[in-house]
Amino acid sequence: MSRLSGEGRMRSASLLSGSLIYLVASVTTAALPFLLLPVLTSYMPPAEFGLLGVFQGLYTLFLALCGLSTAGAVVRQSYDVGREEIGVYIFNVLLILAATTTTLGLGLLLAGAPLGDWLQIPPGFMLAGLAAAAMVFTLNLLLGQYQVRRKPLAYGAFQIGHSALNIGLSLLFVVGLGWGAWGRVSGVMWAALAFGLLALVVLRLGGRLRARWSPQDIRGALRFGVPLMPHEMGTFFVTWFGVFVLNRMVSSEAVGLYLFAFQISMVLGVICDAFNKAYVPWLFELLKTGGAEGQRRIVKLTYGYFALMAVLTLIAFALARPVVALVFDPAYLPAAGLIGWLVLGQALGGCYLMTTNYLAYARRTELLSLVTVAGSVTNVALLLALIPILGIHGGVIAFVVARLVIFLLTWVLAQRVMPMPWRLKSKEV
């Protein structure tokens, strides 16, 4: 009995150490771009920085479209088949990536000029975003294999290495060569190309990339990925659609101020996401083995997490203006009033993560599409209604309300499929 308990403790310790490595890698990866922010804002006025906001929105859209969310299918398939079979599967997912990227690329070549005029962004920025998104998809295939094989150190090395090269090249192009916004875009693109190609080499050398056409694998990957597209697109509309509306209805300077405040708020968003990755294995284990008392422990921890989000939001409201005045160019001081509200939106996103895990545990993730569609419809409607009246503040309000809708709706659905003792009464368990 003690031997079994010892093995269980060893598994738990291994799980904890791996989760901590993923947490550190994710936080480090997020911290590097944040450290670049004072440099970028020193070399770019808000109007030019706004170009990066439109680029980031397009890049996020291309990330959702390239490969049609089939990277997750590779991770799922990896638990069911051996190395050779998964190598063939990855090859066929790459064919899906090639088809979607080529289609999008042709569309940009044919309609790039009028689309660029409408978005007020050079066509080269759009092509760079597409190339970067395709290569990041490839990198994510390798990172998924490292997760499946429980190699957190390799995962962290690739993730941090990609981010470090991204930042290093951006500094070279923006500061050293004076390329402005195009320098930052170039840093994103070339870092993605370098690590995307390196990922292909590593997959090939590791026997996890085998060139063999398999219509069955393509159909299977699409059956997994395509139903996730409403969720992916909904996430894009909630997070980034406001950038395009601000750009059209207000100005690129407004986009620059919004992006600046949003990137600062993303510090909390990334920490929440990294914590969730470390938290999920513990949560699932306790849901499986902890019984009623385990559920009560989870609920108490969740309420503590909610309280922490509230405290961090209040701190953001209090410190935003003095920190911006101290660290950043004075041209960005008008954005200080937006930061606290956007941090509130990120905090609500963190609360959403704490509730959506129950849908994953109950294997009811198809409900996420309903949630994100509701959130995106709310966001788009509020953007179109409020930005003409309130300008940039209308975009912030829309983001916060959409995040609130997503959180509350997810919590309600999670309670229906996975009842938890939220009133902390044992008889409700």
TrEMBL record:
Q: Which UniProt keywords apply?
A: Cell membrane, Membrane, Plasmid, Transmembrane, Transmembrane helix
* Name of a matching Pfam family: Polysacc_synt
Q: Which domain of life is it from?
A: Bacteria
Q: Subcellular location, in the record's words?
A: Cell membrane
For membrane topology, the record states:
Multi-pass membrane protein
Q: What is its main location?
A: membrane
Extent of the signal sequence: none
- Which InterPro entries does the record cross-reference, listed alphabetically? Poly_Biosynth_Transport, Polysacc_synth
Q: Which GO terms describe its cellular component?
A: plasma membrane
The protein's name: Uncharacterized protein
